[in-house]
Amino acid sequence: MSSAFLTDRYELTMLAASLRDGTASRPSVFELFSRRLSGGRRFGVVAGTGRLLALLRDFRFGEEELRFLRDEAVVDAEALRYLEHYRFTGSIRGYREGELYFPGSPILTVEGSFADAVVLETLALSVLNHDSAVATAASRMSIAAGERPLAEMGSRRAAEQSAVAAARAAYIAGFSATSNLEAGRLWGIPTMGTAAHSWTLLHDSEEEAFRAQVDSLGIDTTLLVDTYDIRRGVETAIRVAGTGLGGVRLDSGDLPIVAAEVREQLDELGATSTKITVTSDLDEYAIAALAASPVDAYGVGTSVVTGSGYPTAGMVYKLVARQDATGSWVAVAKASAEKVSKGGRKAAFRTLANGTAIAETISVADGFEQVDDGAAHPDARALQVVLVDHGEIDGSHEGHAGTLAAREHHLQVREELPVRALALSKSDPAIPTVFIDVD
Amino acid sequence: MSSAFLTDRYELTMLAASLRDGTASRPSVFELFSRRLSGGRRFGVVAGTGRLLALLRDFRFGEEELRFLRDEAVVDAEALRYLEHYRFTGSIRGYREGELYFPGSPILTVEGSFADAVVLETLALSVLNHDSAVATAASRMSIAAGERPLAEMGSRRAAEQSAVAAARAAYIAGFSATSNLEAGRLWGIPTMGTAAHSWTLLHDSEEEAFRAQVDSLGIDTTLLVDTYDIRRGVETAIRVAGTGLGGVRLDSGDLPIVAAEVREQLDELGATSTKITVTSDLDEYAIAALAASPVDAYGVGTSVVTGSGYPTAGMVYKLVARQDATGSWVAVAKASAEKVSKGGRKAAFRTLANGTAIAETISVADGFEQVDDGAAHPDARALQVVLVDHGEIDGSHEGHAGTLAAREHHLQVREELPVRALALSKSDPAIPTVFIDVD
C-alpha cells in the first residue's frame, strides 16, 4: 500500500510550482526538530524512526494516486510526470530511535532537491510527533515503575492503527509488554492479557468464571477480582486456584489502600507468591505514588497512548538551508519572535562529564558541504547516524530487530541523564542546548 | 488486510476459555457507551461508525493471524478452529454517525453469542473513541466559526492513519475541508492548501516566491504573508498578484490585531475582496475570540486532531445482559461506585419540546426479547438504527456517501440542541439522561 497520500496537499502544490519556476532542483536541507519540550518535560524520547523508514519504502505515487491528483486538478501535467517516477533519492541523517532529544535537537536532517524533500513533511511529522509523544510519556512511567513490569493496554483509547504504533513506542521507552496483538506480530513485542469484567459477568457466579479461566489458562493466570467485592473475590480466587495462583488484578478502588489489604489477605491465605497487578487509570504520577505499595506489576491504558496530556510532540519540519541561483548555500529561517527557527545545517553531540550528560551541543554551518565530524568534541557522543544514503534505506531500524535495538539504545542512553532529569514535575529541560557556529 | 488483530489479547483468551466451558454460545448483549462527557463538554458527537463497519467486513482471522496465535500459544486448538471460520453473525443497533450523545447513551448495542461479540471490543472502542473525540471538539469549533469556512490541517500532529480518520471526523462535525490527500480520496472530503514558509524561504526573495506561486496556481491562490514582515508581505502580494488576489494567510502573531491591520491594508491597496485566512494554533476558544475580527476562514491543526485536550472519548464496551444456563435473560453490571454501569438492554430516544431536545430518554429492559419501539414516546425521536442485521452490514454508512450523510445528519440534529449547549465553557451535559425501567 502506498504511503504517498499521507501527505498535505500543499506539499504537492509547492512541488508543482517549483517545477514550473525551476527551483525544484535546488539542493535543500530540511530539518525536523522541536522548539520546546511539551508539558515541562525534562527530556524527550525519539520514536517512530523505524516505522518512518518502512513507510518511506512505500512512498510511491501509483495509478490511483495520480488519477486523484489529475481528476481533482491538484497539480499540472508536469508535476504528474514527476510524481509518477518519484522515489526519495536524497539522504537522511538523524537521531537513533530511542535517543533522547532536547529543544532544537536536529532529530532528522533531510537533504535532497527541494522537490524530493518537501513532500516528506507530513509523513515524517505524523510518525515522529505521535510516536515520540507516546515514548516520552512512557519513559517517565517506566522510570517511575522502576524494576516492576509495566504493560501497555491502551489500544481501546487510541485510533486502531495508532494503537499499534503506541504499543511499539511504549516498548521502546521501557514498557515490557502490550495487550495489542498486531504489535506483537509486527514488532515482536511480548503480548499479555487474560480476562475482562465481562468474563465474570458472563458466568452465573464469580467462582464459575474463575474456575473456567484456571481450567483454560492454568493456575499461573491472573484473575480479575474486583467485579463484585474485592475481599470475596480474592478469597474465591485462592479457593479455586490454590495458593499457587499466578496473580490477581485490581482495576478500581483507592489503589494504595486496596493493594495493601489484598497483599495482607493473600499472605494470610498462604498465597505469598501470588502477584498483584493494578490497572486503574494509571499515569506516571499514580505509578510513582504506588512505589511503596505491595504492587508487582502495572498496566497502563489511556495515559500512555495519549502522551499523558501531550498527545503530540510539537516537532516541525523546516527548510534550514538551500542553494541559491548561483549554487551558493544559504541558511534560511522564518523571522518570528514566537516561532524560533535556526537556519543552517547542524551536527549534534551530547556532551558528557564523567558519563553524565551536561549539554546538547549543536554545531551550525551556514553553507558548508562538510558535516562536523566531532573531532573537536572529544568529550561528546555523536547523535546522528545515516538513515538513508542517496535513497538507500538502512534496513537495520525496521522490524523486530530494529524495535528491540531502539529499546536497548533508549535504556542505555537514559543512564546518561543527570538525576534531576528523572523527577516528574514540570521544569526546564534537564540539559541546555548549546549552539556553536562553525562558519 | 485483516482487521482482526487490532484486538487485545484478553478477548481471545476469554473466547478460548468460553469454548472450553460451554459459555461461548450464551446469547449476550454488549453495549458501547460513555459514562460521562470528557472535559465538561455539553454534548458528544458520535463518529467512526462508517469506518467501523468497513473494518468489520475485514475482521477475519487468516493464515498469518492463526499462525501467530498458535506459535505464541495465545489460544488452544479448539479456539483456533473457531477463529478460522469466524465472521460476526450477530446484530448491531446503534446511533447514526453524526448523532449527538450524552452520558449513558447506548451508542452501540452488539448482540450475538458471547464468543462472537466479545472479540469486537477493541476495534469498536479504538475507532469510536478516537473519531468521536475529534468530532466532539470539531463540532464546538464549527459552532464557534459560524458561517466562516473551517479547514482541518492537523495531519502533521496525528499518527499517519489517525490523521485520515481525524479529517473525516472533523468533516462530519462541520469542517468544510482538509489538507489531507488520503482523506480526500477515501472519503470525498474537499482538500485544500497552497504553500508553506519553506516555499518563500526556497526563493531568493518573497516576491519571486509569490510570483512563482501565482504563475502556477493563478491569482485566486492564497499567499502566506508572514515569513518575514507581514506589512511588506501583504504589499508584495498585491503588487505581484494584483487586487484580484484570492487570499492571504496569517500563521503567527496576535491574530485579532494583525487581522485588523491586514484587512485595513488590503482595503487601502484596493484588494477589498482578498480574503484573510488565519491558521496559528487555533482552537475553539481562539476561533470564538476572532468572531468580531475581519477573518474570512480558519485553518485548525493540532487542537482538532487531538480532541482539544481530550484525545479519547472515554467510551467503554460492557456486557450488559446475557442468558444463563437455563436460557433466561439476566441483566449484568460490575458493582463499582466509581465506574457506574447500568445492566440491561436499552432503547434510546431524544425527547423534544417544540423541536428542542429536553432529555435523553433510555428505556431499559432486564431480560426482554422485544426492543422498545418508541410508541410510548410520541414526543421523541428514536436514536438507534440497525447497522448490522445477523451479520449483514448495512453498506449505506460507508464511503463517500456515508460520510456525507453523517455530516448532514450532524448538522441537522445539532439544530435541536438548546441554546445553552452551544456555550464553550465547562458545564454539565446540555440535557439530562433519563432511564426508564420497562420490565
Oligomer status: homodimer
Whole-number count of domains of chain A: 2
Biggest pleated sheet of chain A: 7 strands, antiparallel
Gyration radius from CA atoms of chain A, angstroms:
25 Å
Largest Cβ-defined interface: A-B, 102 and 102 residues
Question: Which structural category fits the helices and strands of chain A?
Answer: alpha/beta
- CATH-scheme architecture of the largest domain in chain A: Alpha-Beta Barrel
* Low-confidence sequence ranges of chain A: none
Strand content of chain A: 15-25%
Work out the helix count of chain A.
Answer: 15
Catalytic activity (chains A, B): 5-phospho-alpha-D-ribose 1-diphosphate + nicotinate + ATP + H2O = nicotinate beta-D-ribonucleotide + ADP + phosphate + diphosphate
Function (chains A, B): Catalyzes the first step in the biosynthesis of NAD from nicotinic acid, the ATP-dependent synthesis of beta-nicotinate D-ribonucleotide from nicotinate and 5-phospho-D-ribose 1-phosphate.
EC number (chains A, B): 6.3.4.21
Family (chains A, B): Belongs to the NAPRTase family.
